[in-house]
Amino acid sequence: MFIYSLDGKTLYYTSIDLAISGFSFDQIYATIWLARSTDGGKTFTRSKTSKLASGTVNSTTGQSIGVMVDKEWMTIDRSNSSRRGTVYGSFLAINLTDTIETLNVASLAPGMTSFTTTAAAIPTQDLVMMQIATIDVDYSGNVHMTFMGTPDYEVYYIYHSVSTDGAKTFSKPNIVSRIELAHRSLTSYDSFIPGIDTGRQYPSIQVACGKPGTAREKDLYCIWEALGISSPGSTGEDIYFARSSDNGASWSMPIVINKDHQGLNRHQFRPSTFISSNGMIAAGWYDGREEEDNTSVDYYISYSLDGGRSFTGETKVSSLPTDFSTIGLSNGNFGVGEYLQVLASDNYILPIWSDGRNDDGTIGIYSAKVPLESSSVNSMSGKPESLHITSNPVKEKTTITVSAREGSAIDISIFDALGRKMETLFHGIMNGTENTLIFSPEKISSGIYYLTLTSEGHSITKPISYIK
Q1: Are 19 and 26 in contact (CB under 8 A)?
Q2: Residues 6 or more apart in contact with residue 463 via CB below 8 angstroms
Q3: CA 271 to CA 426: how far, in whole Å?
Q4: Could you give the residue range(s) of every CATH 2.120.10.10 domain in the chain?
Q5: pLDDT category of residue 188 using cuts at 50, 70 and 90
Q6: DSSP per residue, 140-203
Q7: pLDDT of 83-101, one tens digit each?
Q8: pLDDT recorded at residue 33
Q9: C-alpha separations of 101 from 129, 171, 322, 454 in Å
Q10: How many CB atoms are closer than 10 A to CB 343?
Q11: Are 74 and 137 in contact (CB under 8 A)?
């Protein structure tokens, strides 16, 4: 994982190293290292003590004993509290000797080179299994964690815990939602995602806190994937979202944010979320809605402007689908992992994901820069400009109607999914309140583009599809 210091001068990086003694797997050394870069990621350094956690597993007796560490996450305190600038790291420790699992959080204070040697454990004595923990810091410096757990291997839940003392202690976990998991519940049903080992079909939980200085700075948000929240549904795996406005003491009824065909067993999975500086909530996920067997998978995004009560702007951002039955051909059927992240500014969503669009087991990392309608996102007022596209998708040409104040300085351009300008349709002064333009996309290939009107420091963006 990567995270920047608040001044942007230091880039922190954590990674899990698995080492063996000689050529034998009888003894495995697991270390979550911390490295840092002060040159923008060109080079990284780490010392022998720069680590988040470590453990050793010994199998010489035929039975594994010792401790394995896994599933790290990082965040930084951006609040104005006394702990501002502190980096927090969480991890899962599995004691294979007595099969006890613990979730832990360590802190890295500004100016320090290593995490605290004693990590705080989440009080999970009532649970027999935990997985997929993420952390974030709220407007007042409280550290929040969400994770999956079960008290009996029969019913699974998403839990929340909070620390108000800089990750020295954490509250007893409370329930965010019950979840139905593929192949992990005793409920009998057939649901799986092609290309992903069934043992790795985790709910990919992520917690996010409202941004300081916004109207919803006290809100918490949680996103995950599941087959349902009380019983398996008929729509396959969906992306669920819940919110809290009382420091995680209670949570809203989860909503499904993907808007695919209901009643069909199509899977959405591996979600992530991000809160922009103006409070817009971005979400991203893999989506298999196009094929009945869930093998054709794309990457989608969506966003919320009302604090997670509803989501809009659902957009497919991958230009080519992946046959997910081939995604694990080159990595032992591991497929894709859970560590994905969507980012966002006030006017753009920046998803980052991996896929195997060549369908030969080769996995690449991709990103997109998706502009939003800033009139919806920003709190600016008095903007009479508007765009209307007569026919969309476009086959040969289409008429674009522009409404603007007479005498307005306007720029109207076409951008691709990476934010590159493909064509300028108009740049100058609008002489009337309503104007028409003709767009003939002869020099570009088929795909999704974005029509953007910019005027007096703000912009309006609408997606436009071109089919040759």
Answers
A1: no
A2: 315, 448, 449, 450, 451
A3: 38
A4: 180-377
A5: very low
A6: TS-EEEEEEEESSSSSEEEEEEEESSSSS--PPPEEEEEEB-TTTSSS------TTS-GGG---
A7: 999 999 999 999 988 878 8
A8: 94
A9: 6, 17, 35, 54
A10: 16
A11: no
H or E, element range at 3: strand 2-4
- Cβ 379 vs Cβ 368: under 8 Å: no
Q: Measured between alpha carbons, how far is 135 from 209 in angstroms, rounded to an integer?
A: 9
Compute the distance between CA of residue 24 and CA of residue 398 in angstroms, rounded to an integer.
Answer: 66
Reading the block at residue 308, the tokens are: 């997670």
Pick the CATH number of 386-466 from 3.40.50.10860, 3.60.140.10, 2.60.40.10, 2.60.200.30: 2.60.40.10
- Give 3-state DSSP helix, strand, coil % of the chain, rounded to 5: 0, 45, 50
Do the bridges between strand 421-429 and strand 386-389 make them parallel or antiparallel, or are there none, so unpaired?
unpaired
Distance (Å, whole) CA 292 – CA 267: 10
Please tell me which residue, 97 or 170, carries the higher pLDDT value: 170
User: 355: helix, coil or strand?
Assistant: strand
Tokens 């067997």: give the residue. Answer: 293
Domain 180-377, architecture per CATH: 6 Propeller (2.120)
**Please, which residues have CB within 8 angstroms of residue 449's CB and are 6 or more apart in sequence?**
414, 415, 416, 417, 422, 441, 463, 464, 465, 466
Query: pLDDT value at position 229?
Result: 86
- Every domain range in the chain assigned CATH 2.60.40.10: 386-466
The residue assigned the tokens 């997109």 is 368
**Residue 383 pLDDT:** 43
Is this structure's pTM higher than 0.85? no
Which pLDDT does position 163 carry in this prediction? 97
Closest by Cα among 349, 354, 353 to 341: 353
- Encode pLDDT of 405-429 as tens digits: 667 778 888 887 666 788 888 888 8
